[in-house]
Amino acid sequence: MSQRIRGVKGTRDVLPSDTYAKDDDPWLRIGHYHLVEQSARDLFPLYGYREARTPVLERTDLFVRGIGEVTDIVGKEMYTFDDRGESVTLRQENTASLVRAYVEHSVSQHEPETKWWYVGPMFRRERQQRGRYRQFTQIGIEAFGSPGPRIDAEQIELLDRWLRALGIPFEMHLNTLGDANCRPRYREALQTYLRSRAKDLCEDCGRRIETNPIRVLDCKNPKCQEVAAGAPRMDQFLCDACKAHFAGVQESLQRLGVAFVLDPKLVRGLDYYTRTTYEAIATSGLGAQSTVAGGGRYDGLVKDLGGPDVPGIGFAAGVERMALLLARQGKEAAAKPVVFIAPLGDAEAARADQLAQELRAAGLSAEVSFRKSNPANQLKRADALGARFALVLGDQELKADRARLKELKTGAQHEVSLRGFADEVRRLLEKAP
Ligand code: HAM
Questions:
Q1: 3-class state of residue 81 by DSSP
Q2: pLDDT tens for residues 159-192?
Q3: Which of 6, 149, 363, 384 makes the best surface tag, with the fewest CB within 10 Å?
Q4: Cβ of 388 below 6 Å from ligand 1
């Protein structure tokens, strides 16, 4: 036998059925993905977001300049390769890509305010664990051109509504990181403090003192957390404009009835953030990787990537993490056939194909059995597929052009004509949807 080829570490297959699962981690089914994605498709346009799709492959420079050279994401986790003299990278997130597209297509010249949403795979070479993969899926939104705090609150309310609608248990965390005016002073004060505690920090944080001191605040190492607890706080350094913005966000959230927790440690892993940052953190069910969605404002990024001085804000949610939470709750958007048709002989098979075609043309899902088997086994199969009705088609039914349609859940039998079959099925569905 030839040797098997296994999937790449950190990637996972999402299959229609969970019956192949070998571990006790809830198995992700495609139905969970659909539930998450469909709810976003329904909700996001209500807030004016339109879908944008950008390539998974971008020039490496985009991420180095966009996300920041000293971040873990760029420093350690990029899938980069040489494409005949040009360095390209599999996208690790989509904000930098959407900003690139926004600038490249001069969108700001046509629209003063732009709202885009997206869904797609992202790639980070991280250590694999539950809820953390090397290929994962994000659904996110980005809004360009709105400097005031009301858009911040609107986005947070959207995220809150979305997660609630799906029944995901979470807490909304909120922070501000200041801006180019006030953050440098804070950074300096933080560095001075961290240098004095350098010997108590982990190796990574020792390095971060000089490169990215703010990241020390959210290191998971208990010793670093102890140091972080005594560190100066950003809110002591905010300039008046940043203070007013943050107060505005909180007021709007209160007006909109969104609960939140102020969290000075919420510093995020990407360099482009200014002012508001927010994260939805699962209160149970995810273990260490508990951040379901995160985002914030990035007022300088469009300009830094060669565009006009247009502010931006957005968030991205991890679809696998949301799907894991839905799997735990047993929720799934299942695609089940309305009618399962089991022909007993060759003549009946041809008629079964025709009936299925009629049903599908009428927008009803149908599955035809391609196996020869007795009626009892066919009914078992229909049941396993979760079909609503089963039709066993024999010689008698063919001659009379009438049959009995079995409703699988209740066991009820419905006499129906096979002429105008789709209408008959629809009538039954209308009676008891
Ligand atoms: P991020 O916090 O890096 O932000 O990622 C957002 C979400 O993606 C995380 O909260 C998590 O649910 C999911 N995620 C991240 N890495 C992994 C992974 N290795 N495996 C599974 N899920 C993962 C961003 O990417 C920003 N672009 C968000 C944003 C949009 N900020 C402004 N606009």
A1: strand
A2: 999 999 999 999 999 999 999 999 999 999 999 9
A3: 6
A4: no
Query: For residue range 262-293, what is the model confidence (pLDDT) as tens digits?
Result: 999 898 888 899 999 999 999 987 888 899 99
The model's pTM: 0.89
Q: Please state the rounded mean pLDDT for residues 15-39.
A: 78
What lies within 8 Å, CB to CB, of 260 at 6+ separation is 156, 172, 173, 174, 250, 253, 278
Q: CA nearest 424: which of 354, 331, 377, 355?
A: 355
Q: Closest ligand 1 atom, CA of 126? A: 19
pLDDT band of 337, cuts 50, 70, 90: confident
Instruction: Give the angle subtended at the CA of 361 by the CAs of 355 and 362, to the nearest 5°.
Output: 95
Tell me the C-alpha distance between 26 and 199, whole Å: 41
Give the pLDDT band (50/70/90) at residue 334.
Answer: low
Distance 319 CA to ligand 1 centre (A): 10
Q: Is 296 in the pocket of ligand 1 (CB under 6 A)?
A: yes
222: pLDDT strictly greater than 60: yes
Q: What amino acid is encoded at 366 in this protein?
A: A
Mutate to test the pocket of ligand 1, among 54, 73, 122 (most ligand atoms within 8 A of CB): 122
SS3 category, 164: helix
Q: How far apart, in whole angstroms, are the C-alpha atoms of residue 403 and residue 400? A: 8
pLDDT of residue 91: 97
Q: Compute the distance between CA of residue 142 and CA of residue 152 in angstroms, rounded to an integer.
A: 11
* DSSP-assigned beta bridge partners for residue 414: 405
Q: Where are the beta strands (DSSP E) in 40-199?
A: 50-51, 57-59, 80-83, 86-90, 114-123, 135-144, 170-176
Using pLDDT thresholds of 50, 70 and 90, give the confidence band for residue 419: very high
pLDDT of residue 333: 66
Q: Which residues contact 32 (CB under 8 A, 6 or more apart)?
A: 322, 323, 326, 327, 331, 332, 333
Nearest-angstrom CA–CA distance, 25 and 131: 10
- Where is 185: in which H helix or E strand? helix 183-196
- Count of CB atoms situated within 10 Å of the CB of 49: 22
